[in-house]
Amino acid sequence: MSPRSARLARLSRSVTFSACHRLHSKSLSDEENLKLFGKCNNPNGHGHNYKVQIFLSGLCCHQCPLCFLQIDPVSGMVMNLTDLKEYMQAAIMEPLDHKNLDKDVPYFSEVVSLQKLLPQGVLYKVEVHETEQNVVVYKGEEAIVK
């Protein structure tokens, strides 16, 4: 396969949800937590309107059955946006919207739940905007070589 015959496609969709959380470390005293996290350590939590943007990516050579995110020759779509919307509804909106992330979502810090729903290998990156200034970008796991 020559590089000219392959086509790279990326697709993105975003959702916005509201949730609250508390910045607090069990390994610190209440005073140390307050000093470190300030108003974000409020015992009742604090809220944000989060924006989550999902990016899908695929390389299609049209020569092998292993390609994913092939551009459909009939519809011209990389992935049906209705399907992506449903995946995001199930993985993000239903478990997180209007929830206390610390109390209502115990798996939140351990699972990238959208990976379970999407076809294998298509998730390129996830951006989570807590505020316009605070953004976390997830691009999968990488092995660290020492």
From TrEMBL:
InterPro entries: 6-PTP_synth/QueD (IPR007115), 6-PTP_synth/QueD_sf (IPR038418), PTPS_Cys_AS (IPR022470), PTPS_His_AS (IPR022469). GO terms for cellular component: mitochondrion. Keywords: Lyase, Metal-binding, Tetrahydrobiopterin biosynthesis, Zinc. One of its GO terms (biological process) is tetrahydrobiopterin biosynthetic process. Its cofactor is Zn(2+). Its EC number is 4.2.3.12. Pfam families: PTPS. It is an enzyme of class 4 (lyase). It comes from the Eukaryota. One of its GO terms (molecular function) is metal ion binding. Pathway: Cofactor biosynthesis; tetrahydrobiopterin biosynthesis; tetrahydrobiopterin from 7,8-dihydroneopterin triphosphate: step 1/3. Involved in the biosynthesis of tetrahydrobiopterin, an essential cofactor of aromatic amino acid hydroxylases. Catalyzes the transformation of 7,8-dihydroneopterin triphosphate into 6-pyruvoyl tetrahydropterin. Belongs to the PTPS family. This is 6-pyruvoyl tetrahydrobiopterin synthase. The gene is Pts.
